[in-house]
Structures are given as C-alpha cells and as structure tokens.
Design brief:
alpha/beta; Rossmann fold; 3 domains; 7-stranded parallel sheet; 5-stranded mixed sheet; 15% strand; globular
C-alpha cells in the first residue's frame, strides 16, 4: 500500500463502523482521503457525508426504485462543476468503488453477502482491505484467504478482538504461538440464570453493557453468537486451528485479546473500549499515528482501573456459541447455514415472533436439516444462506416457548 494520504473506498459508510471510520478520517485529513462512499439505503446521511468528504464516487446499493430515486434527487444538488460525486446505484456501485484505480485501501464495513462479493472484487483488483465484515470470512474464508494470498493482498482486521490479536502477533514467529485468547464482555446476561434468560425482552437484549452497536450485532453479542463468529474469523485470519482458539470472559472490556506463547508468556492489547483505535490502527498500518491532540481516543490510565476480572465461558447457558463452534468444525457449507439461520432468528426475535432462548433452538433446527457441501463456491454459499433463512422462517412457529 502506498504512503499518505491513503485514498479510501468506504463501504457501509452510514453504519456504526462506517461513521466511526469517518471520525478517524476527520481527525487526520492529511493522512486519509475519501475517494468513494457506499451505503445501503440511508440516503440522507450518505448525502451529508458526501457533502463533507467530497468523494469522487458515491454508491447506494439498495436495489429498489424508491431508494434510487431518493438518491438521485439528493445528489443532484451536490454535484460540482466537474460532475462529482458520480452516483452509481445497485451492486454495481460497490464493484466500481472497490476497483477504482485511485483507491489504495478498501474499508469493508458493509454487512452480509454484499460484503463478501465486494471483498472478492477488491482482492481481484489488488486492493488492501481493512475488514469489518465477519460474514465474509465465516461463510467464505476457504475462498477469501487463498484468493488474497494469490493476489498478494493484505487483510487488515478492524474488529477490536482481531485487531488486538494482530497487534500482539506482529514480529512473532507462528511456531512460537500456543493459542489465541479472545476476550468477551459476557454481554448483558453474563450472570443471568437460564430461567431469567427465558424471560428476556428485546429491550433487555439490546442493552449491551459495554459497546454501542446496531441491533443485529447487539443481539448476537447477547447470545454470544458474535463471539463464536469471531472465533471462526480468527481461524481464517491467523491460520490457527480451532482447538488453539479460546474465549475468556472479561466484563470490563479493557483487555481486547491475548496471545499465549509456547513458553507460557502472555501478550495482550489493552485500551478503553472504543472502535476508533482499531480502525485507526488498520488505516495507518504499519505506522501508529499520535492521537493525543485529536480528542478521538481516551487514554487508559491504570490508576483508574480498580480491578480486572476474568471468567470461564459458561457454554451451557449460551447454546449459540456451542452451535457455531460445531458448525465451524463441520466446515463446508455449515457456517453459511449458521449465518443465514442466525440472521433470520435474530430478525424474528426483534419483531417479537420468537423468544430469546428460541434463537438457539431455531438455529439448531436448521443446522440439523442441512445436507452439507464440502467446498461451496460463491453461488452455493448464497444458496445455502438463502435456504437457511427460508427454513428458519418455516420452522419458527415450532420453537416458540412463551409467546
């Protein structure tokens, strides 16, 4: 990747990671320049971002006539004399954003299958990728990592846990690593009994004790599905067998992950909970940029940290974690089905169709009915995910416990 300023295509600019990425860019205008912005359907915010950061290209990838018309209306008034920003609607906009010749770095913060397809296109174009899309590696790590290696493309992790592991592994020898330890806050139900968890409401599940995120990832954090997906992601990113990746509960979320070496020593990355730091770390790699005068990141003062707690993960209370690790070990198309079933189950919980504990039951029902494919290509991945969502909807009425 070239030096500074780094020219960035930001996918998912109106989401949580996208907005925080723009916070970082705003603080370092001499180091980062936005060339392309892409968002799903939040046209109003996308227009505000385009007005501030003045990209050459804006993509709105929700393929509906209503969104496309709203986007064209909003951006007509923003166009400068040179015709920028260019507006491209639909999936084509994502592909154009990541393959532009003037893009050095693609920040992949768009979720779901759009994220997978755009990452594969960015790899094909030889772009460095800062990755914040779990589904890409969970569903298609067997395709993405070999493709990146063949193309000589670097995947830089943005997720706080993986970014922490990446920092801890820099300069280390792979054969000297005993295991990776991802930390988990434990979510809002870390100390809840099974009886209490059966009565969990949507509002309670959305009240994460540490992080402020979108509703889908917040529910995944409450079920610990998110942590299991992070285990799968770490497996692919760091080429580490599953039996050497563990999770430890750390409710303060100060230690973001740890690496244990063969001599018994531990190396860990610590900071106050904030996504700005891992985003900045990925965007500026291999350099570290000073943040003292930016107001972006609050310094961690150890005198203010009274205690740090660590606990074993109680897998018996968090069935989603167990199901995800089992799907990962089975491999093939099972992780794709896991993602699709979880997407649908969480949506059904959020709209009140099923209860909190039914999320795991529904995912297990779908996984039990799946006939696996050993090495799915992208069409097979899409088919498996769509089948899982449809099957979850079909069986949702059979798992309800209290409605």
């Amino acid at each position: 990747m070239s030096g500074f300023p780094r020219r960035i295509a930001l996918l998912g600019s109106t989401g949580s990671i996208g907005r925080q990425t723009l916070d970082v860019v705003r603080c370092f205008p001499e180091h980062f320049h936005i060339v392309a912005l892409a968002a799903h359907s939040n046209v109003a915010l996308l227009a505000q971002q385009a007005e501030e950061f003045k990209p050459a290209l804006v993509a709105c990838f929700a393929a509906t006539p209503e969104v496309e018309q709203a986007a064209r209306t909003a951006f007509e008034s923003l166009r400068a004399g040179d015709g920028t920003p260019e507006l491209v609607c639909g999936a084509q906009g994502l592909l154009e954003a990541v393959t532009r010749a003037d893009v050095d770095l693609v920040v992949a913060a768009n979720s779901g299958l759009m994220g997978l397809e755009s990452v594969m296109a960015a790899i094909g174009a030889g772009k460095t990728i800062a990755l914040a899309n779990k589904e890409t590696l969970v569903m298609a790590g067997h395709l993405v990592m070999p493709a990146a290696q063949r193309a000589g493309v670097s995947l830089l992790p943005i997720d706080s846990e993986h970014n922490a592991l990446w920092q801890c592994l820099r300069g280390e020898q792979a054969h000297e690593v005993r295991r990776l330890l991802l930390t988990a806050s434990g979510g809002p139900f870390r100390q809840a009994t099974l009886d209490q968890m059966r009565e969990v409401t949507v509002e309670q599940a959305l009240a994460h004790p540490t992080w402020r995120m979108g509703p889908k990832i917040t529910i995944d954090s409450a079920t610990l599905m998110n942590k299991a997906l992070e285990v799968i992601e770490a497996h692919w990113l760091f080429d580490m067998p599953y039996e050497r990746i563990d999770v430890v509960v750390h409710p303060e979320s100060i230690i973001h992950s740890m690496v244990e070496f063969v001599d018994g020593s531990l190396k860990m990355q610590a900071s106050l909970p904030s996504m700005h730091l891992p985003i900045l770390n990925a965007l500026s790699y291999p350099l570290r940029l000073p943040t003292a005068d930016t107001g972006l990141i609050q310094d961690l003062r150890w005198s203010q940290v009274a205690q740090l707690h660590f606990e074993e993960l109680d897998v018996a209370r968090f069935a989603c974690y167990r199901l995800a690790r089992e799907a990962a070990l089975r491999g093939g198309s099972y992780p794709c089905v896991l993602v699709g079933a979880d997407e649908e189950a969480v949506a059904l919980f959020l709209d009140g169709t099923i209860g909190f504990m039914d999320i795991a039951r529904l995912i297990e029902t779908v996984l039990e009915r799946h006939q696996g494919i050993d090495h799915p290509d992208i069409p097979a991945i899409l088919e498996a995910r769509d089948w899982a969502r449809a099957t979850a909807r079909e069986f949702s009425h059979n798992v309800r416990t209290f409605l």
